[in-house]
Amino acid sequence: MGSSMEGPKAEFQRRSYWRWSKEDFFPEESFKSWPAYVSALGQTHRRFRDRLLGRSDDATELGDLRRQSVNDMKRCLTWWDLTWFGFGSVIGAGIFVLTGQEAHNHAGPAIVLSYVASGISAMLSVFCYTEFAVEIPVAGGSFAYLRVELGDFAAFIAAANLILESIIGSAAVARAWTSYLTSLLNLPKNSLRIHTNLAKDYNLLDPIAVVVLFATATIAMISTKKTSYFNWIASAVHTVVIAFVIVAGFAHAEPSNLKPFLPFGAQGVFQAAAIIYFAYGGFDNIATMAEETRNPSRDIPLGLLGSMSVITVIYCLMALSLSMMQKYTDIDTEAAYSVAFKSVGMKWAQYLVALGALKGMTTVLLVGALGQARYTTHIARSHIIPPLFALVHPKTGTPIYATLLMTISSACIALFSSLEVLTSLLSVSTLFIFMMMATALLVRRYYRRDVSTPRDLLKLVSCLLVIIASSMGISAYWGLRPHGWIGYAILVPLWVAGTLGLQLFVPQCRKAKVWGVPLVPWLPSLSIATNLFLMGSLNSKAFLRFGVCSGIMLIYYLLIGLHATYDMAHGQYQRPDLVEAEERKAAAGAGGGEA
């Protein structure tokens, strides 16, 4: 018995985490050879229909898909960790980076109303995320939730946008990190960037941003719990700086700076709200940590809802203090708070603010590296991207391949692109995903394959179409006729009718097991409306970039992702490492039994 066990154990030890063979990237039958790939392409229509109509379920996401990582992530986080991750993930990027930009360009002193509008919309999305994260506590976040409720193709759309959002979000924060370092060192604007002859918005190379991205990613790859400790310390320091900014800002406030309060009108307020929505976007990283949370049903609601409620109040106070310290026309678009304190005679304060902002943005990048890697890991588990990126390191319990993929991609973008180009594209992607999440929650509550009748399904689809179409109409009418009222008189009652029809005529097939969104279907329906409304407030260039990126992603899906996920769903792939892992666990169990 002893000698027979040594062979398999030796084989398991020889199987390194670091691997680069073709089978590790493409283990599916469709990619075994060129003839097999050509044959798969010939079945694209049938396979697309299969994936369009196919659905995952809670058990698959929690069991079969997690085994694709070979090793498990470590359950080491509590509500306390999640709460501080919430602060670290959200505060730092938006408030320090975008407030000055949007107050100066779009909203004026009414930037505080932009934060209120975005905060309400974000809280509606937080409700949806919390219910899903409690019931399906896996690393995939919204990707996993959409796979269960809306199917593989909808999940791919989310996956593509999640990856886009993650890469661009990190790049934007890393670029801003350099701007605040420049302010801290009291150097001229853009002096730490390399000037080139490339096209405008892409001509200032930022090597410091690249270094910061790799530094935070390295910490995230070492240990999740140690990353949490680091985040506690940095966030505590950051909290002190935020308190100083609010108190000192109001101490030097000039009420006259609030006039005119709406220099760009209500349209400017909502245009700014759509862009600063990025400031709230980090909360979805917390949902991806459900797989590493000790008690998801208790810890996730406390961590998510608690941190986001406090953050919304902090954002509004900080935006108001900035608007009262300095005239909106004088607000600096790169390092707003540092320059504002300098303008009221507190030159020394600009260094404290810049240091606090740097700490805040460092934790945003740190928690982002954690969350983004976990999104990517679960996406790779489904084989939409190569399953190599799903592997979890046996010692650290972290997805190192997924972390490196996202970090290298973000570094390439951060090196070239300006902050304004990045944030407008990012907001479209973020708002689109949150709209899909609210739709998925309504589907989860009102449709169940083994319970719902075809008639109930038809009523559900009809109501959802009315809700989405009327919300899009309201957004379009606002863009075309911001001072009109006839369109609202038609479209708002339509939205109410769609939501009321869902409540009265479609029976709920599922109740939340532990924690659920209140006032269903009204709050999820309102989330759909607000996200689409904010999307409509963005400029056409943002949608053009979004459309181009989505088109490229769709080509990838039809050529690669579709066939990989089809083979995965039908068991047409070979993963020797999974077999080895199962045998290793069985051998360990047998050894324990003999002992």
From TrEMBL:
- Show where the Cationic amino acid transporter C-terminal domain sits: 515-564
Q: Which Gene3D superfamilies match?
A: Amino acid/polyamine transporter I (1.20.1740.10)
Q: Where would you find the membrane-spanning parts of this chain?
A: 76-98, 110-132, 153-177, 204-222, 229-252, 264-283, 304-328, 348-371, 400-419, 425-445, 457-479, 485-505, 517-536, 542-566
Topology relative to the membrane, per the entry?
Multi-pass membrane protein
Q: State the GO CC annotations.
A: plasma membrane
Q: Name one GO molecular function term.
A: L-lysine transmembrane transporter activity
Task: Please provide an example of a Pfam family that matches this protein in its UniProt record.
Answer: AA_permease_C
Subcellular compartments: Membrane
Supply the alphabetized keyword list. Answer: Amino-acid transport, Membrane, Transmembrane, Transmembrane helix, Transport
Q: Which family does it belong to?
A: Belongs to the amino acid-polyamine-organocation (APC) superfamily. Cationic amino acid transporter (CAT) (TC 2.A.3.3) family.
Protein name (record): Cationic amino acid transporter C-terminal domain-containing protein
Q: What is the lineage of its organism?
A: Eukaryota, Viridiplantae, Streptophyta, Embryophyta, Tracheophyta
